[in-house]
Design brief:
- By secondary structure, the chain is mostly helical.
- The chain has one domain.
- The protein is built from 8 helices and 2 strands.
- A two-stranded antiparallel ribbon has the order 1-2.
- The longest helix has 25 residues.
- It is globular and about 45 Å long.
- It binds zinc ion.
- Zinc ion (ZN) binds next to helix 6.
């Protein structure tokens, strides 16, 4: 999927995990982190010092598109939260550990609808997913994006999304 579609999906998933700004923004951010292994991607272009060597060594859609990566990233937040909780309230960091897990998973599943990823890396390195021609990739991506925009607008107008985001504090 394209970065914009990943961001929309990640924002929705993040909101569902935590109906707060932290949930939405954490979901959007974590939903694009996986493409750090592709120098031409939205995020890869910005951190090319990481993305170029990563693509050379690991290839695209491998380690950063695995369950292992989503669990690892989530664990990093849990460990940080445990350390921070010694000194102060670490609830937002604990919340983020769920949000980033969901955000990264949404990216991986999104990519699997239009291509293959090494979901079970490093246990099983073969790529899994639905491989489609480029024109269909674009059609599916567009349909997903339209559905997400509809869902978001619908919930902004008729749901309690705005209420929740205004009512809840940052996290
Ligand atoms: Zn990807």
């Amino acid at each position: 999927m394209y970065a914009k579609t990943h961001m929309l999906l990640g924002g929705v998933v993040g909101y569902l995990i935590s109906p707060t700004w932290l949930g939405v923004l954490g979901g959007i951010g974590s939903a694009i982190i996986s493409d750090i292994d592709e120098p031409k991607s939205f995020i890869g272009r910005r951190v090319f010092l990481v993305s170029i060597p990563l693509k050379w060594t690991m290839k695209h859609r491998t380690v950063t598109h695995s369950l292992f990566f989503s669990i690892l990233f989530s664990c990093l937040f849990v460990i940080s939260a445990l350390i921070i909780s010694i000194f102060t309230d670490a609830t937002p960091i604990f919340t983020l550990s769920y949000v980033v897990f969901g955000g990264i998973l949404s990216h991986i599943l999104g990519d699997m609808v239009t291509g293959r990823v090494s979901l079970l890396w490093p246990l099983y390195r073969k790529k899994i997913g639905i491989k489609v021609p480029f024109w269909l990739y674009r059609v599916i991506d567009m349909l997903f994006r339209l559905a997400l925009v509809y869902l978001i607008i619908n919930n902004l107008i008729f749901g309690d999304v705005i209420n929740n985001l205004l009512k809840n504090k940052l996290f």
